[in-house]
Amino acid sequence: MEQDSDEDDQISSTSWTSGRLLDGDDDEEAPFYTLTSGESAAETDAHKGLQFVSRGNWHRHVHVPLVHLLRRALLQHNWHHAAHVLSALCTEYRDVGHIIWQVGSEVLYKHPRTESVHLQSHVDNMEKVVTLNRFQVHLEFIFHLLSKGRLEEAYETIKSGPLRKKRSCFFTKASQPIWVPIVKAYTGLIEYGLWVQGRQRISRQQQDVSSFTGGYDTQESLMLDSTLTTFEETVQRHAGKAENNFEDILKEPGVWDIFVTKQVEMLEYYGRTEDAEKDLQKYWEKNPENPNAHRYYYFFLTRHNRPAEQKVRVLQELQKIVPSDELILDLVCLKQEEDVGECVGVLFNLLDHHCWSQDIRPWQKLADILRDIHSTQSLPLLDVVEQCWDVRQDWWPPYHFPPTMATCMVQTDTTLACVKAVVCSILSPDRGFVEAVSNLLQPNQRAVLEEAVKVGDAWRRGQNVRTSRSSSASSRGSSSDGGRSGANRSSSASSRGRSSDGGSSGANRSSSSSSSSGSRNSSSSSNNSSSSCISELNNSHSMGENAV
Predict the structure, then answer these.
(1) Contact 308/337 with Cβ under 8 angstroms?
(2) Cα–Cα distance between 432 and 427 in angstroms, integer?
(3) What integer pLDDT is reported at residue 147 of this predicted model?
């Protein structure tokens, strides 16, 4: 019981009741619980609960109505009033410890009279609450310091707090593998921030040294030079510690995007591009579902002029998980010389997404490729385009080429409207969108559309010719199959005639059988097939006579 009372004293004497944090701007301001009347039953109960607590009744559970009142203060960004409610909630910390911690931190971050002593007191008290994770409490405080740019204070806090203490009682079997790499990661991030600040100091120091025209003989220049050397050593020490922490966390599974970029930045700064590439490649291989892993690796390969094959491989993996990514346009540029068919499929898939419907870059590339394919008349590429269009011809026209939107498109971006009209005229026989755009253009701009319409018409005529040729070829194939089957039947009948015991009668049976078979097949085959069957029948007759 004595221990419980001590804990009550610790929680109730937090920063909410110290340092004039709860004092209003006006000394004559009424108490908080009489400022506003409740607009609902919950708020009315909350005001009553706050009055009940303010009269010294700390033993009653009133945290439920107080939470409603706290929510209203937070929505109104009334930090002074929220601090009053939190001071009352501190008496019920066993049930609402997480509220006191999270909401209290937010109030302290936003309250105009908050000082460092208030924040530190709040964190120290929250770490003593057994229902909270002390590592998470401490790490949230470090996040706040980092957001305010207080790197030195964050560095000292993470070194001296419970996150760095190596007593086993601070860890459980469930939390140890989670918090250890997180602590290393943010320790490395703080070291990186100090490294960046040190580099800026060195840059300013070098400017001061170079400003002395008298050289290094003066006492001031020697002092600046010595200070510069000290700064460089400190910066290198921070870089080494950050690198060690980043290397440890990159061995762990998980998403470490912000940390791997800082690691690569430091390695590139010191000219260790091979080490940076190895780290990015490992991160890319361990996170195939993370789009940023692909992006970071590709950006590095581009910066250092790596072979196109490597960049294509990375972008192809990115396309599998994010087919609408902006870097897919780079994939088209890299593959356009060697595999136009793949580029066509990539562009069609890219334009399926709405985010690209108003971007002229993929439309312009698709229009250029379609013109090139028409000029070369490459049958494999024509088949690729037809396959891509067949699955989209029902929904692309109303999705990308609605005639009702032509006026808006031309007014917004005339060039984009023209390019989309070119693509539409080549792919689709529907001229509604093309004519609507053409009527809104200047006479000198319509020539491009007229040329595209001619290309589209020639494209479809060629497609019809190829279709008719393929159908006739298939019919000839079926006819030749019928002729060959008739000849085979006649040959088998002749062989049966030759093998019969009555020679001439067998030949006659063979002839009649062959003739009837040939007549049946000739009625169902073409003229060429019929002549071949007649030749086969004559041969069978002569063979029958020789046998007789």
Answers:
(1) no
(2) 13
(3) 84
